Amino acid sequence: MKTYAEDNAKNHAPHIIVIGGTSGIGLALAVHHFQLGWQVSVVGRRMAKIEHINSQYPTIRTYACELTDDTQIKNLLEKLSSIRFDRLIYSAGSYTNERTHQLNQADSDKMLAINLQAFEQIFSWASKQLKQQSQPIDVFNNNIT
Fold first, then answer.
1. pTM beyond cutoff 0.85
2. Which of 96, 95, 83, 68 is nearest to 18 (CA)?
3. Do β-strands 143-144 and 137-138 pair in parallel, antiparallel, or remain unpaired?
4. What is the Cα–Cα distance from 67 to 122, expressed in whole angstroms?
5. CA-to-CA distance for 73 and 25, rounded, in angstroms?
6. Within-domain flag for 82
7. Is the pLDDT score of 3 beyond 80?
8. For the segment 51-87, what is each residue's pLDDT rounded down to a tens digit?
């Protein structure tokens, strides 16, 4: 059973959101922050990977989202809007190896949707959220107002 101090410390721990955090570098960064005591939220598209994270790290919050789907992104950002966070990492990406695969229109559209359009949507949202979360600082008296 957690003590009040442990529970209170956890509630005031910094929070990170990792988009594309179910594998690779994104997952490594999510786990690293978790081990540092951060609250962690991970977003991914593959349910099997999300379920694996849920079984290994039950206190990490997970969200499923297909970043090529504007409706899913909108729903994700609505859910995340209730979370106060300190850091956001965008580790999602889609790439086609042109040496082994001819790039077609569908692959090109998918890469643009994930690597550019979703990136822009999420960072625009995050910027607004962080501005709303911040408290003005009185620079003359070094006080937070």
1. no
2. 83
3. antiparallel
4. 10
5. 21
6. yes
7. no
8. 999 999 999 999 999 999 999 999 999 999 999 999 9
What b-and-e string marks burial along 43-59, b requiring 16 or more CB atoms within 10 Å of the CB?
bbbeeebbeebeeebee
Show the tokens assigned to 35.
């081990």
> Domain for residue 125, yes or no?
yes
Sign of CA dihedral 78, 80, 84, 89: negative
- The DSSP secondary-structure symbol of 112 reads H
**8 part of a folded domain:** no
In the structure encoding, which two tokens stand for residue 88, read together?
A: 């956001």
15: left (phi over 0), alpha (psi -120 to 50) or beta: beta
In a domain, 5, yes or no: no
Coarse DSSP helix, strand, coil percentages of the chain, rounded to the nearest 5 percent: 50, 15, 35
Residue 107 pLDDT more than 60?
A: yes
Judged by phi (left if over 0) then psi (alpha if -120 to 50, else beta), residue 63 lies in beta
Structure token pair of residue 79: 């859910």
Q: How far apart are CA 13 and CA 105, in angstroms?
A: 44
Cβ atoms of 50 and 78 closer than 8 Å:
no
